[in-house]
Automatic annotation (TrEMBL), chains A, B:
Stretches assigned to the Semialdehyde dehydrogenase NAD-binding domain: 1-102
Reaction(s) the record says it catalyses: L-aspartate 4-semialdehyde + phosphate + NADP(+) = 4-phospho-L-aspartate + NADPH + H(+)
Name of the protein in question: Aspartate-semialdehyde dehydrogenase
Subunit details: Homodimer.
InterPro entries in alphabetical order: Asp_semialdehyde_DH, Asp_semialdehyde_DH_beta, NAD(P)-bd_dom_sf, Semialdehyde_DH_NAD-bd, Semialdhyde_DH_dimer_dom
Positions annotated as active site in the UniProt record: 111, 231
GO terms, biological process: 'de novo' L-methionine biosynthetic process; diaminopimelate biosynthetic process; isoleucine biosynthetic process; lysine biosynthetic process via diaminopimelate; threonine biosynthetic process
UniProt-annotated binding residues for substrate: 138, 224
Gene (UniProt): asd
Keywords: Amino-acid biosynthesis, Diaminopimelate biosynthesis, Lysine biosynthesis, Methionine biosynthesis, NADP, Oxidoreductase, Threonine biosynthesis
HAMAP family xrefs: ASADH (MF_02121)
Binding-site list for NADP(+): 22-23, 141-142, 304
Biochemical pathway: Amino-acid biosynthesis; L-methionine biosynthesis via de novo pathway; L-homoserine from L-aspartate: step 2/3; Amino-acid biosynthesis; L-threonine biosynthesis; L-threonine from L-aspartate: step 2/5; Amino-acid biosynthesis; L-lysine biosynthesis via DAP pathway; (S)-tetrahydrodipicolinate from L-aspartate: step 2/4
């Protein structure tokens, strides 16, 4: 988050770093200035204009209202407020106007939803979208730093012929854990009663809310793969109106936040190892369905920590600041 | 292949091992007996009842007719004859009867098609299938031993902070190569003019041939993931007739070659690391679509080297031997 603020040259006058009592007291170097980490108490939000929350849903539920009470705009990276009717759920390339309808809190969508929305919104605007079938290839970093460490440890164990042990993935708070290295885990977050995971239901519900269109039929399968940074998605859509493939490619090549990497003859297509550390969403393998009228397949890759989290939040703050002249 | 023949206790009287001139001369230990590898010449097939081919399409095109001429039944693991009209394309759990329509050659389907067919055929029989949208998560072993080595080398390089180099994956004969470790590559085999890869077109064409039903709309995306053994597939189908979810699960639990691993509450679902070395196809995450009438999603995993190749070929030979009393 700090890194993204700096890379975007976000115009902050001062930066306050808040964390749990356990982490308070450490000092973080920001542009050569040593900034102490303070404990995130309600009072700590006094004088804060914009509060970027990213410390888990329970922390947001407890402290976001305190920050709002003290005059801050909260941009929340957790799922705590995403489906609250009065809270805008914003992907700037899609529904930036919603930023100005906030009541103190703006929610940042789930990483896998954000990149899909950036890729599909241009198509939605021009052709309409009736349905989406999406399979994800999600990176370990989406489950946090401990998941990254576990991926590396299990990979090293398998490479040296030891048997890998896991205690974090797929869901740290659940009972069973499986190694992700040289494996694929079809579970991200807990299961709901309908057989879908919470991650999958986020892709359904957040798509409906961001596009303000609950008619779209979304069929998700969310899968964790042994990648450190960068989520990939195989996305199939059916548009309402017919399309010419070249027109769709031109549209995607000229849409905000999106880079078209689609040249099969030269083996050019998005890859997570290449997208890691980058701000845009990358799209490729754009092709017409062989059988289904208005069927279209695409391959969408983005850095889940940047566009899927920190960057999207900072973009929201940028638009707010630019329009409101807050700072 | 040898290992599978032994594990299945295939009733062979003698085993002949053939390879290129380069590999000829090595000696392989089979059940304590030292068997020399001979050069695969046309004459080497004299006296052979069943010839299991797995040395690339060009070798099969050159030598399979020579083996047939000398009285052998050829079971071909390559793609050379799969779409030839007079050659049966067989998944024993689906169309074993085709084995007896051969004219000397029986083709073994592509690995990603085989496991999908084992999982979908019971559903196809009872409910009919109108369409399939499938995204694959395919292991490095599908691209051969050099691809496995490259996956391990690139993984080790990244873990030690070196930059990985690739010269095999995604397609060794093409110009560009990308590391697979901690990455995902949306290319398996070369691209065709329609934007689909050859691997994806195999899933379309072979599905039609095996089910003898070219009306099924197949939408594939084939992706290589950093796994050594075991292909996974996120499969969405639309059936012709309505279904009750529990009936589908019972059906899958009682179908040949298939093991239902579907207990989300206890985090039970198929994983490639668990399926590696096993003969069956594993299916889980079976769930009804949230919006689409007759929509069904499943997660299918199998060892691509066993059920996807050697086992399927040996099963074909077993059925032929059992019915014909050849040996």
């Amino acid at each position: 988050m700090i890194d993204t603020l700096l890379r975007r040259e976000f115009p902050f006058a001062s930066l306050k770093l808040l964390a749990s009592a356990r982490s308070a007291g450490t000092v973080i170097d920001v542009r050569g200035e040593s900034i102490p980490v303070l404990e995130a108490t309600p009072e700590a939000f006094e004088g804060v204009d914009i509060a970027l929350f990213s410390a888990g849903g329970d922390v947001s539920l407890r402290l976001a209202p305190e920050a709002v009470k003290r005059g801050a705009l909260v941009i929340d990276n957790t799922s705590a407020y995403r489906m609250a009717p009065e809270v805008p759920l914003v992907v700037p390339e899609v529904n930036a106007h919603e930023i100005f309808n906030h009541h103190g809190i703006i929610a940042n969508p789930n990483c896998s939803t954000i990149q899909m929305m950036v890729a599909l919104y241009p198509i939605y605007q021009v052709y309409g979208i009736r349905r989406i079938v999406v399979s994800t290839y999600q990176a370990a970093s989406g489950a946090g730093q401990r998941a990254i460490e576990e991926l590396k440890q299990t990979a090293a164990a398998i490479l040296t012929g030891e048997s890998p042990t896991a205690s974090v993935l797929p869901v740290s708070k659940l009972e069973k854990h499986y190694p992700l290295a040289f494996n694929v885990l079809p579970q991200i977050d807990v299961f709901e009663a309908n057989g879908y995971t919470k991650e999958e239901m986020k892709m359904v519900n957040e798509t409906h809310k961001i596009l303000a269109d609950s008619r779209i039929q979304v069929t998700p399968t969310a899968v964790r793969v042994p990648v450190v940074y960068g989520h990939s998605e195989a996305v199939y859509v059916e548009t309402e109106k017919p399309f010419v493939l070249e027109d769709v490619k031109n549209l995607l090549a000229n849409s905000p936040g999106l880079i078209l990497q689609d040249d099969p003859a030269n083996q050019i297509y998005p890859q997570p190892l290449q997208a890691a550390g980058e701000f845009p969403v990358f799209v490729g393998r754009v092709r017409k369905d062989l059988f289904v009228e208005n069927g279209l397949s695409l391959w969408v890759v983005a850095d889940n920590i940047l566009k899927g989290a920190a960057l999207n939040a900072v973009q929201i703050a940028e638009i707010w600041v630019r329009q409101e002249g807050v700072l």
